[in-house]
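Usage

Read records sequentially. Each one opens with the input sequence:
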Amino acid sequence: MNAGVTDYDVLRVFCGPRGGYGNELGVVRNGSVVPEPDERQALAAKLGFSETVFVDDPERGVIDIYTPTLRLPFAGHPCVGTAWLLDVPELVTPAGVVGTRLDGEFSWIEARPEWAPPRTLRQYGTAAEVDALEVPPPGEWIYAWAWEDEAAGRVRARAFPGRGDGIDEDEATGAAALLLTDRLGRALNIVQGTGSQILTAPQPEGWVEVGGRVVLER
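and closes with the structure output:
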């Protein structure tokens, strides 16, 4: 696609089993065409995705991540999507080096909970309560979740960024899933938004894997 003179890909990350749903992600493969942080921020705001990634070195996996209003040192769904697109063994983010792997239909990343931005993890009694929630007013970033089947590790979740930047609800968020996995200390199968799927698993020494399906939208 083209935004002015800037080419970018659009992916959907954390798609459902049939390839639907997922959270859209913009990826500028040639980050050198938008070199300055303020230019990148302006383009991310113009594109309007929950995150846009600028690839600064496709072979080494060096990336830079922006929401419409701020730069992020790490974010989950941008890393999962970009790992799939570039097919590299790792991604280099300002937060640290993110391990990546492709396993069948799933793209996986391995990251640390302390890299994730602060999130309010708010548990509800039932999945139906989560489904019924209305978008809260801007303020804190809320990850609303409930067990669908606790024994099986199945979770229902919705994400409300609360930034007031036009993204009232994130369809799928890897960083929040990473934090929830770290808190609960177990592998999770999360259905978020209208039908996105996120898989997670704790790893040794405090790492967490987050995985999902990725589709090239355009």
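Summary fields computed downstream for this record:
- Residues 6-110 form a domain with the Diaminopimelate Epimerase; Chain A, domain 1 fold (CATH 3.10.310.10).
- The first strand starts at residue 2 and ends at 3.
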